[in-house]
Amino acid sequence: MGDIPKKQINAVSSSRSGKLKMRIRFYLLFMLTLSSLFIVTGCTASKYRRDADKVAETIIKDKQEQLLGEAEDFTIERPSDILRRRLLIEQDLPRSGDGSLGSDNLEPIAHWPERDYPKAEETSGDDIVLEPGQTLKLFLIQALQVGAMNSPEYQSKKEEVFKSALSLDLARNEFGLTLRGEGETSITENKSGSGDTVKGVEHSGSLSLSKTLKSGAKFATSLAVDLVSLLTQGQTSSFGITGDASVSIPLLRGAGRYIVSEPLTQAERNVVYAIYEFEKYKQTFAVEIARSYLNVLRQLDQVDNNAEVYKNLMVSARRTRALADAGRSTEIQVDQAVQNELSARNRWINATDSYNSSLDSFKKSLGLPPDANIELDRAELERLTARVSGIVRDIGESTTSGSSTELVGVGMENAGPLEMEEKAAIELAFENRLDLRVSEGEVYDAQRAVVVKADALGSELTLLGQANLGQSRSLGQAGMEDASIRLDEGVYKGLLNIDLPLERTAERKAYRESLISLESAVRNLQSMEDNIKLSIRNRLRSMSKAREAISIQTRAVELAEKRVKSTDLFFEAGRAQLRDILEAQEALLSARNSLTSAVIDYRMAELEFQIDTGILEIDKKGLIVEYYDEEKDDVKL
User: Fold this and answer.
1) What is the C-alpha separation between 286 and 306, in angstroms, rounded?
2) In 69-173, alpha helices (H)
3) CA nearest 119: which of 107, 134, 104?
4) Which end of the chain is less congested by CB atoms within 10 angstroms, N or C?
5) pTM for the complete prediction?
6) What is the CB-side half-sphere exposure of residue 256 using CA atoms within 13 A?
7) CA angle 52, 124, 143 (to 5 degrees)
8) Rounded Cα distance, 175 and 230, in Å
């Protein structure tokens, strides 16, 4: 053959170069598309966190409006200036390290994903002002708000609701459009024993789109491109492109919306349960804070009562000493008076210690440092005593006059507004108890589980379809012509797959266990009903008993105060013994402590009754909204 003209060689070379440039441009355009999608959807860890927060908060808000009729701001981000932190700083309390003040005060470790998170921005808005060097007086209303903001247990409960919302978002994502993109470039050098070396570059990229329907059908499609180029042997190259599409449709086992979407259904219901349980927890938490607050005041009242007795016995001891010096008493009585004084001092010290311990425990329950300088509002107990004073009945004459010895039980005279009929209270609880709704929902969940497990026992029949178009390229195919996608040159497949129910041992076990679980769920519901009835009956009795105790102890205090005064006068006149003074003082101490306990017990029985019936509400600030309307002096029927 003759030599090929140089002009023709240049033309061939130019043609190859043009084709290579065109392929590279196409591939670069494809990779640019992938990169653009990554920029739009990938972003940073900060964006992913914000997106997760937005989705979860939206889910919770929608569910709250659906379930409770209104939504409140729900976030798991705590303000950086919560009272705990301010107390540690302003009162200069000991701290073990940076974490004592919060996560935003930590030193970021290596490779921390977000430079500005956690950050100190939000304010707590609790309106509590800390005066330098002054003791913080914490009112009951403030304690409820502080607990909701500072309590670690309260925060954990909120996070459980938040995580259930994230799980629902993940379950929803299973039925959304899923877009994925990948790209890869590799350089290969192949050396043979003859000394020949082949070098080449392989570029590949793909985009895929998939969708699962709630009927069980699954669709998937993808587009992939390859560009292979030899860096030796004439620098030949080839372009490959492939397209795939597939569909899978279950016809028997695993088909149907009620089977396929069961995980999504359960995830939706789990969010409902989490919200119900959190609302129930808020009620219990608020009442426990109120109980702890009043118990601290109870301990403080006992300190005051013991202090008064201690002072009175100190006066008695000095008076006895003076009478003995005047020859009107004996040394035995002096020693007895001093011994009574020492016993009173011991009781006062023990009461003070109990008060300090209960106050520290209360501060910890709020999420505050136990060593913070805090005191409670003494007037709260006085207001509570004044509130229940209307239920005190006059029982004085019935115990001291008349010849009748007939025993009369606790009646309904002067009964509080919440001391309703038992049947009405139980029906109110069945209507309002959120945990009862959860138990009822779990029975329905168990029923659905039986249906799903029964479906797994049947035959499986699946219709499959697949289409493959175009051709891919590898480095060994660099000399081939470019590939293209043509509908008339594809590979199409159809398949009908059947799985006969010949081996279903595992499925049989799961089905039988689902029926057992259903029975267990029904028993749990029945037990819940019985527990509600029991708690309401007990709570109504507790209110009646505490109401009667208030009347009895009010009268007992009056008699004890009268007895103390009379005994003092008789002792000065030489008509009473020192032992009589001690007994009178102890009777007064016991009566006062018992009256305080009865007042608190009645108040707590009222709050607990509202929890047991599900009628107690907690507003957005964490404050108690009672069923009892004080302005109308009636319950909200």
Assistant:
1) 30
2) 83-90, 140-150, 152-173
3) 104
4) N
5) 0.84
6) 12
7) 115
8) 43
**Could you give the 3-state DSSP secondary structure of residue 465?**
strand
- Separation between Cα atoms, residue 41 and residue 34, nearest integer Å: 11
> How buried is 609 (Cβ within 10 angstroms: 0-12 exposed, 13-18 middle, 19+ buried)?
buried
Asked whether residue 605 carries a pLDDT value surpassing 60, the answer given is yes
Type of residue found at 89: I
Neighbouring C-beta atoms of residue 204, cutoff 10 Å: 21
Q: What are the φ and ψ backbone dihedral angles of 23, each rounded to 5 degrees? A: -65, -45
Residue 545 CB neighbours (<10 A): 15
Residue type for 59, please?
A: I
Which pair of structure tokens corresponds to residue 433?
A: 């108890």
Q: Which residue type occupies 395?
A: I
Q: In this structure, how many other beta carbons lie within 10 angstroms of the beta carbon of residue 469?
A: 20
The residue to which tokens 């500072």 are assigned = 150
Give, for 497, the enclosing helix (H) or strand (E): strand 491-499
- Asked if 608 and 132 count as a contact pair (C-beta separation under 8 A), the reply is no
pLDDT band of 572, cuts 50, 70, 90 = confident
The helix/strand/coil state of 523 is helix
- Which tokens hold the place of 266? 């359960």
Secondary structure element (H or E) that encloses residue 6, with its range: helix 6-41
Residue 50 tokens read as 């914000």
Provide the pLDDT for residue 589: 86
Instruction: Measure the CA dihedral 230/231/235/238, to 10°.
Output: 30
Neighbours of 252 (CB within 10 A): 15
The pLDDT score that the predictor gives to residue 11 is: 46
DSSP 271-305: HHHHHHHHHHHHHHHHHHHHHHHHHHHHHHHHHHH
Domain ranges of the chain: 6-42+176-212+217-253+460-499
pLDDT of 376-413, one tens digit each?
A: 999 998 888 887 776 665 554 444 545 555 666 566 67
Helix, strand, or coil here: 229?
strand
3-state secondary structure of 632: coil
